[in-house]
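go over this record:
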Amino acid sequence: MILYTCEKDFLDKHPLDQVGSEDFFRSPRDLETYVNQFYTSENFPISPAFGRDFDSDNSIDITADIRLQGALNLDDARSIDFSGVRSVNFFLDNYARVKENHDLEEYKQYLGEALFFKALIYFNLLDRYGDIQWLTNTLNTDSPELYKARDPRNVVTDSIIATLDKAATYLTDSKTNGASRINKWMALMLQSRVALFEGSWEEYHANTAFGVVNPQPEKYYSKVVEATTAIIESGLYDIYSTGNPTSDYYNLFKLRDYSSNQEVMFWQEFNTELGQGDLVFRREPNYRMQFPYENSLSKSLADSYLCIDGNPIANNNLFQGYTSIVTETQNRDPRFTQTIAIPDDVWKIYGDGSISYYNEVYDNLNTRVDLNCPGGYVIKKGYNPEVVYHVPQYEDTPGIIYRYAEVLLNYAEAKAQLGIITQADLDISINKLRERVGMPNLVLGSIVQDPQWDFPTLSPIINEVRRERRVELALEGLRFFDIRRWAAADELIVGERPKGFLASQLVRNIYPVDQNGFLDPYKNQIPNGYLFDVSRDYLLPISKAQIELNKDNLIQNPGWGE
């Protein structure tokens, strides 16, 4: 996935964990070649057209998400895939051959990458299944470890964090171009994500079937602070800004090159001239995002954006109401109109310099399939209106994987959860994000009560940190991740249906509306709202076949039966 060489089959190389020659792993080049196989779209997913939040309360697709519906089927459960674990353990079991003729300085980068990928692969397994077997060596078909019980999730998390600590000691501390090799700071960014996930999981799932014995959320929050502080103090990264609050946030996601960008820590580069464009990924975000294609954002997300005074829309005279998409966006956090299109926005810029505007989309919304928009809010974030970059199947549009904004949000949340956040902490984290878009600072002692807070039983600062995270990271694939670790499906998902804007502003409407006139696209699909099962659906099930192979030790996840 990361285009490091000019080989056209870079992404199609077969796993090298069956290398049998004693001559392999003898040179740094061998180690580099081996770890290249882990730079894949599975390990580094990027936001496709319309983003990756359709499994959450942020977005609306034409069909309700099956997991949110509570309709996952045990018969369709997949076996846990340990192939990636085996591949990286094979490297760690054999790389030492290189020591015979080479100094550590020559190959430590690739050792660090292997450790990073072991941690990342395990984190993906932990995220999906919870408890998981931690394997330290390459196993064979007769290895007894194949039949061991699952290790507790906190034990696995500790191993992941320790592995990333070790990886950071080997990886380069240079910023690099962010598109070729992993560096130390990316390892620490991932570590902060892992530790925040486990800390909040242990806190909010405590005393449930998903909890752990002797939870220690503070330990993990403290690790988040440690990792993010190191990144912040490195001075290598900052928030992207040209001093234009009305466009900088939007422009960040449509740049053509991030090699010198201060905010983007890791990104995916495509190059169609080398035959390495979207031939493999078929992402084509700009080509697809010309039209809504039955995708939209939700009213719930739209309502999260504060007014320009830094206060919520409830009981705020600055809020101009829902009469139209234009009035709704007036006097709001500029990220609103940099995420959601309004009629006066530029829609297409043609090669001859002529321009079309989004009023052509809104005037014809829901008149044909490609213009169908279930919630009415047309997604703009991540879209480049320059038609020259709208190439079906072969776009070379780059994709952001890790960005510094998440580091700052992780830092602020961990500090808030520890109960030690200060105004100085907010000023070096959340307020830097607000500064980019010209929003007032979040002031610790002056938070206005919001009657529509998602989490009214939690402190004002935690509610506002979570709001900031939702708004800043919208469509980047972390919303459902957050809902699950906060054990928040009961507040945000269960019994809910995502709504859209007022249907009265549409020339034609093909979707149901609620009693207040707002679009209610799932009204007929899920009349009782989402039926996400909070006693089951926070984790995926393990296949019956895999459990049968290890029925003495392998136990099914909570709520999925024997």
In short: Residues 502 and 516 are 8 Å apart (CA to CA). Strands lie at 59-60, 264-268, 296-297, 346-349, 355-357, 399-403. DSSP finds 18 helices and six strands in the chain. The radius of gyration is 24 Å.
